[in-house]
Amino acid sequence: MGKIRKIMSIFIVSGLLIAGCSKESSSASKDYGLKNVTFPLKEKVTLKFMIQSSPLAPKDPNDKLIFKRLEKKTNVHIEWTNYTNGNYSPQC
């Protein structure tokens, strides 16, 4: 009897986690139907992203060499919202 309860509990908890984390997000971008996109872009584009990083990492991710190189090659600038481990709490 205890084994069945344990299995049922696992299924119930799994179902709750899936249901809680699968809500629709209204902040997602609409589908622009882009096709045949080539880089670098003709016009500079700015995107906004959120990132979690180590407190030892640069406060501005654009100071990282990899992001500087990617921006130069793609003509895409990213405005980062950077959270360190201490002030970021993940939510579904």
Q: What secondary-structure arrangement, pairings included, does this model have?
A:
Elements: H1 2-21, E1 45-53, H2 65-74, E2 76-84
Parallel strand pairs: 1-2
Task: Sum this structure up briefly.
This protein is α+β, with helices and mostly antiparallel strands and 92 residues long. The chain is built from two helices and two strands; from the N terminus they run αβαβ.
Provide structural commentary.
The chain has 92 residues and is of the alpha+beta class. It is 33% helix and 20% strand. It is built from two helices and two strands, in the order H-E-H-E. Strands 1-2 form a two-stranded parallel sheet. It is elongated. The two termini are 33 Å apart. The mean pLDDT is 77.
**Derived structural class:** alpha+beta
Largest sheet descriptor: 2 strands, parallel
On the 0 to 100 scale, the average pLDDT is 77
Question: Hey, roughly how much beta strand do the residues contain?
Answer: 15-25%
Helix content: 25-40%
Number of strands: 2
